[in-house]
Every structure is written in structure tokens, then in C-alpha cells.
């Protein structure tokens, strides 16, 4: 079967309650999405799996949850107020808004400005060459704080964070001191981030409100930082492939010097093949996550430290020096940082696309089977009665569901024949279906059906919880080994 495109996933996601277009009854809200009953489970599982992998499984990483709205000075000294811009171009013909960096720069011209002046670039929507000169657009979303705040009162201006990272930097010493951490160590955070994207789109790939899973990994100034970037790239490739992503659908992109963010000295993006239907291979990829070497830029910028070498950034507002004291060497310095930054939503989309498969049953009917890793599956097991008009069978199935629920996410379903019930669970990725039949009343055993092989085995009800937990635990252990 050919790989699914994003449209296949959009339709599955809507049909089966993963993701709905937001504010749909009012005509929607440009590229905003709501997560339904299965989507919220999948998203929670992605986040829990990441947290378990980094915060629980390793000794050198702690977690935090910082505010979404921070003091505006955070964004001044992080450099975002000044530099978190996209270049925006408007088409005068069809009014399309275009991100200048997404326009192809023709050979022989040095800037997009020049290309537009010479009418060498076309609007991707209507092919017109009548485009406005590029202008800078700060993509931080603004809000105002306080009851009396006027729209344009600069003292009330605040931003919804465009990345979770800054909440980590400003808490660096709090975490280091309370947890008595020594370098190297990391701080992890999951949370919402907001960007006023010029061209949101492609389902949950690019939205104005999204979720990030960020790690700031602090190391010594004399460490081998470029090698540490490679180390974290390998770790994340292991994490994604361990959770079911085909390595062939990942591609490493070394970001050219000229395109690096203001804080980065090296960035490697892990790209995912979100557009397998596109003919040219280089157009199939979009960023899944990035791993950046941010130097000591952020800790220094936020420190009360008149000696910061970049004259513009001397910080008279901060009350703290965020340097680190090395006990062994009796030396103070600013740690450097490697930052793997992953999107929850882009990860979910990649997991859904990679898990999507089609299979034909022995009646020749096409079935969708979502082969999500058991760790990610929204529902771990469905308890299905073979006959819904038999009170003893229904009672037994419901009792099994209740007994499993405290330890794993289980559902009970009797709203169709068994073939239909299996098909429904396959389509949402439930790894194990448990069927209660007439025989179960006699032998206190049930049938456990595997989603991927459709093989069935008979298990005693008394052993069922242990059986399912063992299978889930071994799938998790395998994945954690892979992520190491
Ligand atoms: P892009 O070039 O695609 O706009 P970026 O390089 O600006 O992405 P980063 O600043 O590196 O993205 O953010 C880290 C991660 O956060 C991205 O790899 C992605 O997974 C996620 N992310 C960033 N912007 C969005 C968005 N608008 N919608 C969904 N996820 C996003």
C-alpha cells in the first residue's frame, strides 16, 4: 500500500474522534484544531512517553512547568522582541499572504527583495508577479494584562510564549540549586506555545497554538558541543523509531549557517516525510523537531551581568546572575546548552501517518489498521461480548472491563457484531481485543486478539490482567532501550 497522505489522516482523525476542526459551527478559526476523546489520549501518551524516557529513565534530567505568560522583559532579553520575525510578502493580485522564506530564490539574485523588484518570483496561489516588498512581522502573539489595560498601553503588553525554553532558562538556578544538580544536566518542559504564523496549515503541522516538548541540556563551556548535538539527534531518532516511526521516513537536515536562529551556532532538524505523495523527494519533508546548540546565549542574556560582550544586551533589569559555580574547580561560568525541541502535534501526526495501514480480510473487505505502538495507543484493550443479548456474557464482559480499568485504559463495546467491533478497534489502534463468548461462562477464559496479526489466544480470566500488562510492559521496555 502506498503511504497515506495527510488528507487520509485528517479524514480518519475526524471520523474516529481524534481531531476536529476548531470552532467549526462558527466557520472555523484558520488552522485551529480540537483534540477529541481519542486525540487527547494519543497526545497524553506521546507526552507521557517522552517524559518517562527523559525525566524518569535518566538520572540527569528534571522536569518543570513554567507560566505561559512571562514578564515581558524575558522576551526583551531573550532577543525575541527584536528578532522573532518572519518576512511577509503580500500578493497584490489575489491578496495571498506569503512567508518570504518559502519563496524559491531564483538563480542570479541575492535577495528576495531583489527578486520581487525584478518580478522574478510568482505568487504560489495565482502566479502573479505583483508582490509587495517583504516586511518584517513579529510572530509573538500579544495580549494585555490587567483590568484597566487599554489596547495600546505599552506597560500592559504581554506575550503568549512562542517557545517553552525561556521558562526553563529563567528557572535554571532554581532547579539546579533545589535539586542539587551538577553539570551536565537537563531541564525538560512540556507546554503550549503560540506563534502568529503567517501561513498556518497542513492540519496540525503548523498552527498558531501548539505544544512543545523541550529539553535544555546544560553542559560545560569546554564540552564538545557539536558532538553533543549529534548525540541528541541519535537519541531522538532512537526515540521516534522505538515508537514505530520508520527510519526511512526521517531525514536529518543540517541547517545552513545563514538560516540559523539568532541564538544558535549549529542546528540539525529532524525532518519527517509528511508529503510522500509529492514527486520530488526534497519537497516531501517538513521539520518534525530541531536540535540546536544555543551556546551560553540565554543564561548570559538573562543575567545581571554588565560584562556581556554584546553591548546591546547588557542587562540592568535582571536581579540574578545565572552563572554556575563548579565546586570541583572552584570556578564560576555560564553553562552552554544543547536544545532538542520537539512539537507534540507534529509528533502525533508523524506517529499517525506511520501507523496507518490497510489490510484485506478473508471476505475481501478493506480494513484500516492503525499500528500505533501500544505505548501510544489511545485505548489499550477493548472488551467485547460475542452476544449482546445474553445477560451473563454482557455481565462478565463488563466486570472484566471494570477490573482492568484501574491499571490500563480499557473500554467496553457491544454496539455491533464482532467483525464490526474488531474493525473499529483496529482503526483506532487498540492493540488487544478481548472477546467474551458462550464458552467463557464455562471455562472462565476469554479470547485475546492481536491487532497486527489478527491471531487469537485463549487466556484464563484470572491471568488476563497479568497477560496484558506483561505485553504492554515489554513493548515499553523495548521502546526505552531503543531510545537510549
Ligand atoms: P518551522 O520552520 O517549521 O516554522 P521552526 O524552526 O520555527 O519551525 P522551532 O522554533 O525549531 O520551529 O520549534 C521547535 C518545534 O516546535 C518544531 O520542530 C515543531 O515541532 C514545533 N513547532 C514550531 N512551530 C509550530 C507550529 N506553528 N505548529 C506546530 N508545531 C510547531
Structure description:
This protein is α+β, with helices and mostly antiparallel strands and 484 residues long. The chain folds into three domains: 6-84 and 141-352, BirA Bifunctional Protein, domain 2 (2-Layer Sandwich), CATH 3.30.930; 87-136; 379-482, Rossmann fold (3-Layer(aba) Sandwich). The strands form seven sheets. It has a seven-stranded mixed β-sheet. Strands 20-19-21-22-23 form a five-stranded mixed β-sheet, sandwiched between helices. A three-stranded antiparallel β-sheet has the order 5-4-6. It has helices spanning 6-15, 37-56, 72-77, 80-83, 112-117, 165-169, 172-178, 225-242, 297-301, 344-355, 391-404, 418-428, 438-443, 461-482; strands at 19-21, 33-35, 61-64, 85-90, 97-99, 135-138, 141-144, 157-160, 185-194, 209-219, 250-254, 266-272, 286-295, 324-326, 331-333, 336-343, 356-360, 366-370, 381-385, 410-412, 432-436, 445-450, 456-460. A hairpin with a 6-residue loop joins strand 4 and strand 5. The model has no long low-confidence stretch (mean pLDDT 93). The chain has 14 helices and 23 strands. Bound molecules: adenosine-5'-triphosphate. Adenosine-5'-triphosphate (ATP) is lined by residues 195, 197, 206-207, 210, 212, 287-290, 341-343, 345-346.
Amino acid at each position: 500500500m502506498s503511504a497515506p497522505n495527510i488528507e487520509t489522516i485528517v479524514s480518519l482523525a475526524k471520523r474516529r474522534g481524534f481531531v476536529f476542526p476548531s470552532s467549526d459551527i462558527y466557520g472555523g478559526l484558520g488552522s485551529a484544531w480540537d483534540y477529541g476523546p481519542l486525540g487527547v489520549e494519543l497526545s497524553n501518551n506521546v507526552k507521557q512517553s517522552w517524559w518517562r524516557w527523559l525525566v524518569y529513565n535518566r538520572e540527569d534530567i528534571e522536569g518543570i512547568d513554567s507560566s505561559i505568560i512571562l514578564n515581558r522583559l524575558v522576551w526583551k532579553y531573550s532577543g525575541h522582541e527584536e528578532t522573532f520575525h518572519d518576512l511577509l510578502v503580500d500578493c497584490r493580485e489575489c491578496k495571498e499572504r506569503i512567508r518570504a522564506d518559502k519563496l524559491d530564490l531564483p538563480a542570479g539574485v541575492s535577495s528576495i527583495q531583489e527578486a520581487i523588484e525584478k518580478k522574478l518570483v510568482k505568487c504560489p496561489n495565482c502566479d502573479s508577479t505583483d508582490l509587495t516588498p517583504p516586511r518584517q512581522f513579529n510572530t509573538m502573539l500579544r495580549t494585555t494584562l490587567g483590568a484597566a489595560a487599554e489596547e495600546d498601553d505599552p506597560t500592559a503588553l504581554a506575550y503568549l510564549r512562542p517557545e517553552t525554553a525561556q521558562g526553563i532558562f529563567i528557572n535554571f538556578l532554581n532547579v539546579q540549586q533545589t535539586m542539587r544538580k551538577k553539570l551536565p544536566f537537563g531541564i525538560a518542559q512540556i507546554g503550549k506555545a503560540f506563534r502568529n504564523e503567517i501561513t498556518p496549515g497542513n492540519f496540525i503541522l503548523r498552527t498558531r497554538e501548539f505544544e512543545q516538548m523541550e529539553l535544555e541540556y546544560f553542559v560545560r563551556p569546554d564540552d564538545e558541543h557539536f558532538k553533543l548535538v549529534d548525540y541528541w539527534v541519535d537519541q531522538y531518532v532512537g526515540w521516534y523509531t522505538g515508537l514505530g516511526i520508520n527510519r526511512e521516513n526521517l531525514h536529518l537536515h543540517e541547517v545552513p549557517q545563514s538560516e540559523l536562529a539568532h541564538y544558535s551556532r549549529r542546528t540539525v532538524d529532524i525532518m519527517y516525510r509528511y508529503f510522500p505523495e509529492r514527486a520530488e523527494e526534497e519537497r516531501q519533508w517538513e521539520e518534525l523537531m530541531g536540535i540546536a546548540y544555543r551556546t551560553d546565549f540565554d543564561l548570559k542574556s538573562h543575567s545581571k551581568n554588565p560584562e556581556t560582550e554584546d553591548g546591546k544586551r547588557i542587562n540592568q533589569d535582571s536581579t540574578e546572575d545565572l552563572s554556575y559555580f563548579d565546586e570541583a574547580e572552584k570556578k564560576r561560568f555560564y553553562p552552554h546548552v544543547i536544545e532538542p525541541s520537539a512539537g507534540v502535534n507534529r509528533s502525533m501526526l508523524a506517529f499517525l501517518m506511520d501507523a496507518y495501514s490497510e489490510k484485506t480480510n478473508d471476505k475481501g473487505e478493506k480494513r484500516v489498521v492503525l499500528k500505533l505502538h501500544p505505548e501510544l495507543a489511545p485505548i489499550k484493550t477493548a472488551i467485547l461480548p460475542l452476544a449482546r443479548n445474553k445477560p451473563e456474557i454482557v455481565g462478565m464482559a463488563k466486570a472484566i472491563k471494570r477490573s482492568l480499568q484501574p491499571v490500563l485504559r480499557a473500554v467496553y463495546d457491544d454496539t455491533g457484531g464482532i467483525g464490526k467491533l474488531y474493525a473499529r478497534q483496529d482503526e483506532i489502534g487498540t492493540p488487544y481485543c478481548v472477546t467474551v463468548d458462550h464458552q467463557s461462562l464455562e471455562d472462565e477464559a476469554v479470547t485475546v486478539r492481536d491487532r497486527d496479526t489478527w491471531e487469537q489466544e485463549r487466556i484464563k480470566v484470572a491471568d488476563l490482567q497479568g497477560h496484558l500488562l506483561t505485553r504492554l510492559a515489554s513493548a515499553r521496555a523495548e521502546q526505552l532501550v531503543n531510545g537510549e
